[in-house]
Amino acid sequence: MQHNFKKLYCIQIQYKYAPPRATTMPRHGTRIDTVMHAIRTRIAARSDAPGARLPSVRAQAQAMGLSVSTVVQAYERLVAEGLIMARPGAGFYVAGPAAPLALMELAPPRERDIDPLWVSRQSLEPGEGLLKPGCGWLPADWMYQDGVRRALRTLARADATALADYDTPLGYPGLRQVLARRMAACGVPATPGQVLLTGSGTQSIDLICRLLLQPGDVVLLDEPCYFNFHALLRAHRVRAVGVPYTPQGPDLLAFEAALQAHRPRLYLTNSAVHNPTGAVLAPAVAHRLLRLAEAADMVIVEDDILADFEEQPAPRLAAFDGLGRVLHVGSFSKSVSAALRCGYIAARADWIEALTDLKIATGFGGSALAARTVHQVLTDSGYRRHLQALRLRLARSRHQVIPRLQALGLHPWLVPQAGMFVWCHLPPGLDAAVLARTCLPQGVVLAPGNVFSQAADAGRFMRLNVAQMGDERIFTVLAQALAAHGAAPNSSTK
């Protein structure tokens, strides 16, 4: 009996403290570093609380297949760092108080310049003269500035309630009514009571994660996908699994295999214009995807943030599903103003009720001023013309930029029919992170492919924003960087 107990204890220790999979091991380091990384990761993820006892050095050595002396040295170094503490005769314990949540520690080690959070921070920096073809938004002068100014002038004459009070729990009724009508035009059957206003599209997804996920749950993502999805899911301490994305939508065979292998709780995807590929979901794929999700009892979150860029409305999973197991998310930071932090969730009534409580618990009231401003903008007589002109401007930019990229040897994975993003193959033998690292000192911020890849296997891709490529210096810097790394113009992708 005692022997069986020890065997079970060692199995449990091996599961908890075995080194992470190959993708999460330190790229460069000793066996001691490997032990330290495994323990740091569990403490950073708060899997081991302050005061928790670590395995004995012998148990840890057996679990990791290392020598006792290696584990002893690793533990002693962690003691010196103050991360753990030694109690004579009692073993080693996690030091307190609880370590701050460190998102970088929860992810597979990456070069800093291909980490999603780093790329976001670089793109948001206001550096004078900094060029940002890797960012995910339009230039300020492309946005609906005239409409926003008119809306603000109108609201400046509004009563004190509009200017000074918190918003209602669900959010400004006038905007929810307009959003319900807009979604109905895409076949999404949401009533105003099924629409919850939030601070942004990102906050919408964060609230949904709080409602539906527990640490350790599995979430399916497109491979590649919008890079902040990775960072957000990391903060919720769930496990992301990528499914290859095709020009028609997710690879259904791979999707079905992932459902069987991982039993995910949720699938997070774009609908209208896929980020970063520019692909559009095909109706047949959408129908099959929903059948698979229903059989697996899985929830889908559909991010519709790029909807206003569509030339022709794409299929919406929420329309086919009727908001049964699909939550539909959007905002106006891409087409109206990123300074107006206003997003929304459309979902079935019981989920909206629970999400409203979470919104109040984590943010109390929303911004009535932002919601009323967006409402004024959407109902402004010039907004439709603004979108028509914006789509035409984006089409013209795609037509001009793509041939110039091809001349440099950067070839589109597909030629998008809408939106601002082009997902490009790089010349053979060139890594996108190397190219980004070379261009940054020249004031050009790029978005290398592995930022968007859960599997970190998109090193030969780069997402470029055609709307942010009006400055000739971008092409000059790109050409110089490519030449510096031996990439000849018109390099084939084969």
Describe this structure in words.
There is one protein chain. The chain is an alpha/beta fold. The protein folds into three domains: 2-102, Arc Repressor Mutant, subunit A, CATH 1.10.10; 112-136 and 384-484, Aspartate Aminotransferase, domain 1 (Alpha-Beta Complex), CATH 3.90.1150.10; 146-378, Aspartate Aminotransferase, domain 2, CATH 3.40.640. Helix content is 44%, strand content 13%. It has 18 helices and 14 strands. The chain has helices at residues 2-17, 31-44, 57-64, 68-81, 116-124, 145-156, 160-164, 173-185, 201-212, 227-235, 252-262, 283-296, 317-321, 349-363, 368-378, 383-408, 432-439, 472-484; strands spanning 84-87, 91-94, 195-198, 218-223, 239-246, 249-250, 266-270, 299-303, 326-331, 343-346, 411-412, 421-425, 447-448, 461-465. The strands form three sheets. It has an eight-stranded mixed sheet with strand order 3-10-9-8-7-4-5-6, sandwiched between helices. Helix 12 links the parallel strand 7 and strand 8 (299-303). It is globular, with a radius of gyration of 25 Å. Residues 1-28 have low confidence and may be disordered.
Topology:
Layout: H1 2-17, H2 31-44, H3 57-64, H4 68-81, E1 84-87, E2 91-94, H5 116-124, H6 145-156, H7 160-164, H8 173-185, E3 195-198, H9 201-212, E4 218-223, H10 227-235, E5 239-246, E6 249-250, H11 252-262, E7 266-270, H12 283-296, E8 299-303, H13 317-321, E9 326-331, E10 343-346, H14 349-363, H15 368-378, H16 383-408, E11 411-412, E12 421-425, H17 432-439, E13 447-448, E14 461-465, H18 472-484
Parallel strand pairs: 4-5, 4-7, 7-8, 8-9
Antiparallel strand pairs: 1-2, 3-10, 5-6, 9-10, 11-12, 12-14, 13-14
Helix pairs in contact: 1-3, 2-4, 3-4, 6-15, 9-14, 11-12
